[in-house]
Design goal:
Blueprint (H helix, E strand, L loop, with lengths): L6 E4 L15 H14 L3 E5 L5 H8 L8 E7 L11 H7 L5 E7 L2 H8 L3 H15 L5 E7 L1 H7 L1 H13 L4 E6 L6 H12 L7 E5 L6 H11 L3 E4 L13 H11 L8 H4 L2 H11 L17 E2 L3 H8 L17 E2 L7 H10 L9 H16 L7 H11 L8 E13 L5 E13 L2 E9 L2 H13 L10 E9 L10 E8 L5 E8 L2 H19 L9
Helix pairs in contact: 1-12, 5-7, 6-7, 8-9, 16-18, 17-18
Length: 534
């Protein structure tokens, strides 16, 4: 470890989940955490074991990360209990996390009024909790809640809280600007003073964005000596959010001499992962987001366009391709050829950049996205789109027609029920197949009928199942006639998970398009062969 190395800690799955209107499911947590691990983050906080059923389910069977340490969040022991007999700590230690991050009070006001305990007991709670966690886990961290308010109120007490954790063996003591009210100059000064007493290689920063300074505060904390930075994707978080790790990563990599664990190649995935989160949340990406927004490198007609065409550095602080974004000349959009080539390489397709098929694929993607398709969150559909453009996707089956009927009625027990029935007519290698199936809703009925027809021919589809289903209205002004986008996440017995997308003015048609892609992708991965006609 060098003094120049900064460690990135993502708290999207906990802090981000506190955002108004955000409710992560287990499938969301798995997809987001695996994407974070893939770009090279050092720590991924999964949530709070024991706090809710979603976190319990996620911690029961967490993803296997290649690089990131998996962190469980919780509290120090409660007053009046020993660390060994505290149920909250037990939940943390019994989890499958690699590391534990515990929050505790660092503001004397909270200790005196909220907890109603002595300051010495609060300090003991911190040190004993850290020491106990290290008997079972390789790393323990201490989040000093309201540290900056506490430091300004009672410097000695706030520092004693940090020293108790550090002295007990905490890998990191994290200074939290919990209400987001501290300004950059204060952050830099206080972090610098802390690092005079505790090595900066053990000091972290956790900033909220209530004054729109969370990223600036985090960068100044690093400048002052802190070597761990906490943040969330797209700045998600309670109230005004947290430090946006999507902005912190390129700022540290491209604007400073500090080192982080993200490679140049993985930095190019930043725009993709930012948009992936928005797709999981079923919302449109913010166009003006720094580095990754659609407008971040957009130039309208006039002097700006002329200047950019002569020398992009005039109005672009970095090459947009470094973060996976692209320049937009509003009057004539510049297609993302380099982005398409990078995505092709990811799925194992190497093609010469001058190949005419690349240009055709770029234009096809642009046309599809204009219709409402989004491929940042639907990698399997993008792979199929690319493979089809290159002429390499077998036609495992073709749909002649489907019909869906919904029956809402009172049953024999005088209960109001709604039943769905789907009829599908397919061709498999020239042979017609028709099946009928009931389901819990029209999409389930359609999926069941498709499987009923296809599993006898393609047995590997037996273990494929739907994990998540999202619908987004793309043209809300059209009311009930709006264009809808359906995203379906599927999984199979091999542990694979993939997402596909469909778009239509008819939600069932959009669902079929996503289902068709999902089945096709699965069969291709399994190496299934199209049976010869009979």
């Amino acid at each position: 470890m060098t003094d120049n190395r900064v460690y990135l800690f993502d708290s999207t799955l906990r802090d981000g989940a506190q955002t108004q209107g955000v409710d992560f499911g287990v499938a969301d947590k798995i997809a987001i955490s695996m994407a974070l691990d893939a770009i090279g983050l050092d720590y991924i906080e999964g949530g709070w074991p024991g706090a809710n059923p979603t976190d319990d389910a996620f911690f029961k069977d967490p993803p296997a990360f290649e690089k990131a340490g998996f962190v469980a969040f919780g509290m120090t022991r409660r007053p009046g209990r020993s660390a060994e007999n505290d149920p909250g700590l037990s939940a943390l230690l019994n989890s499958k996390a690699d590391s534990i991050c515990m929050v505790g009070k660092a503001w004397d006001f909270h200790v005196d009024v909220a907890l109603g305990i002595s300051q010495s007991e609060n300090i003991d709670m911190i040190g004993e909790s850290v020491a106990h966690c290290l008997t079972r886990k390789g790393e323990a961290m201490f989040d000093a809640e309201h540290f900056f308010d506490g430091y300004k109120s009672n410097r000695q007490f706030a520092m004693d809280c940090l020293k108790a954790a550090h002295g007990a063996g905490a890998r990191w003591v994290v200074l939290c600007d919990t209400n987001g009210g501290t300004l950059p100059a204060e952050i830099e000064r206080i972090v610098g003073e802390v690092c005079e007493e505790i090595p900066g290689t053990h000091v972290g920063i956790h900033c909220h964005n209530d004054t729109e300074n969370a990223v600036a505060n985090s960068l100044l904390a690093v400048k002052a000596g802190a070597r761990q930075v906490q943040g969330t994707l797209n700045g998600l978080g309670e109230r005004c959010g947290n430090a946006n790790i999507v902005s912190l990563i390129p700022s540290l990599m491209l604007k400073t001499d500090f080192e982080i664990g993200v490679s140049d190649a993985n930095l190019k995935q930043l725009t993709h992962i930012s948009h992936l989160l928005d797709e999981r949340l079923n919302r449109a990406p913010a166009r003006n987001s720094a580095y990754v927004g659609e407008s971040a490198f957009a130039h309208k007609g006039g002097l700006h366009v002329s200047a950019v065409e002569k020398d992009p550095r005039t109005y672009e602080h970095i090459d947009p391709a470094l973060v996976g974004n692209q320049r937009h000349i509003v009057v004539s959009d510049q297609a993302g050829r380099s982005n398409i080539l990078a995505r092709l390489r990811e799925i194992g397709i190497n093609i010469d950049s001058g190949d005419a098929k690349v240009s055709a694929l770029v234009e096809h993607v642009k046309a599809r996205e204009y219709e409402g398709y989004a491929y940042d969150g639907a990698e399997a559909s993008f792979e199929l789109l690319a493979q089809r453009a290159l002429g390499a996707v077998p036609e495992y089956f073709s749909l002649n027609r489907f019909r869906i009927m919904d029956d809402r009625r009172w049953n024999a027990r005088n209960e109001l029920v709604t039943e769905s029935e789907a009829t599908v007519t397919l061709e498999v290698s020239g042979q017609p197949k028709m099946e009928v199936a009931n389901g819990n809703g029209p999409v389930n009925a359609l999926d069941t009928a498709l499987r009923k027809a296809l599993v006898p021919v393609y047995p590997s589809l037996e273990d494929m199942h739907l994990v998540d289903f999202k619908v987004r209205i793309l043209t809300p002004a059209a009311g009930t006639g709006a264009v809808t986008r359906v995203m379906i996440e599927s999984a199979d017995g091999e542990g694979r998970r993939w997402t596909t997308v469909g778009v239509s003015t008819n939600i069932i048609d959009a669902s079929f398009n996503a289902l068709h892609d999902g089945i096709t992708w699965k069969l291709m991965q399994d190496g299934a062969a199209v049976p010869s006609g009979r």
